[in-house]
Design brief:
The structure is a single chain. By secondary structure, the chain is of the alpha/beta class. It has twelve helices and six strands. Strands 3-2-1-4-5-6 form a six-stranded parallel sheet. Helix 6 packs parallel to helix 12. The chain is globular and about 50 Å long.
Length: 239
């Protein structure tokens, strides 16, 4: 299964080899089991402004920068374009609600996965659309020694968030590598779309309530059930 997926990836993009030197992780729903808190926060914060966003909708918008998500929802429901300042204020309210929620735990199996990747000599980066400082500030401590501060690309580092490929292209640039030298670990449809647009081999680990087909339709190279299965993938490849 794994080798077939690699072969299809190379055929699709016309690359001559697959030799990963870095792994680019999304954060929410991948490193942290944080999406239940996010879905709650989005629902209640947007409700304060008279906007409808169900907890399930939060999973579909996951991966976008928060300010862009708010602009999109306002355009759809209010039929007007709001300013950057208004969107930022609304996102601050969402962050306030999030901060009141219980601490999000590290996703089961992800530290073992990082240890495997580290032992294989690959660099680990985080590429997230989040601007949630409560999580971003935890990364280096929770995942030492695998994640270095300079290897985090967040909402503050890009102009265009996922599903645009810019975040993952910046991750490649930060690592100094080409697309065929990377693997992305994602869980969100829009994140998968961004990684595929950047021509990177993409593992979609389905940690949320969406059907596997939702991730597969975005072009994921493989859809896996958890981080333990993702670890098996890395154990199977020869660098």
């Amino acid at each position: 299964m794994y080798q077939e997926a690699i072969h299809q990836y190379l055929q699709q993009h016309g690359f001559g080899e697959f030799c990963p030197k870095a792994v680019l992780f999304d954060m929410d729903g991948v490193l942290y089991d944080s999406m239940p808190n996010h879905s709650y926060s989005w629902h209640h914060a947007m409700e304060d402004y008279g906007l409808e966003m169900s907890p399930e909708d939060a999973y579909l918008y996951e991966g976008m920068r928060g300010v862009e998500t708010i602009k999109l929802v306002c355009k759809e429901q209010w039929n007007r374009t709001i300013s950057d300042e208004e969107s930022a204020r609304m996102y601050a309210r969402k962050s306030e609600v999030y901060s009141s929620r219980p601490k999000a735990e590290v996703m089961p199996g992800v530290k073992q996965l990082m240890q495997q990747i580290h032992l294989m000599g690959m660099t680990i980066l985080v590429v997230t659309g989040s601007g949630q400082l409560t999580l971003l500030e935890r990364l280096a401590a929770d995942f030492a020694p695998y994640i270095q501060p300079g290897h985090i690309i967040s909402a503050f580092d890009v102009k265009r968030g996922k599903p645009h490929p810019e975040p993952y292209l910046k991750g490649l640039e930060r690592a100094g590598i080409e697309p065929w030298q990377a693997v992305v670990v994602e869980n969100a449809p829009l994140g998968v779309r961004a990684a595929v647009a950047a021509r990177i081999f993409t593992l979609a680990v389905n940690t949320g309530p969406l059907a596997d087909d939702v991730l597969a339709r975005e072009g994921a190279s493989l859809v896996l059930p958890d981080m333990f299965e993702a670890r098996k993938f890395f154990q199977s490849i020869i660098i």
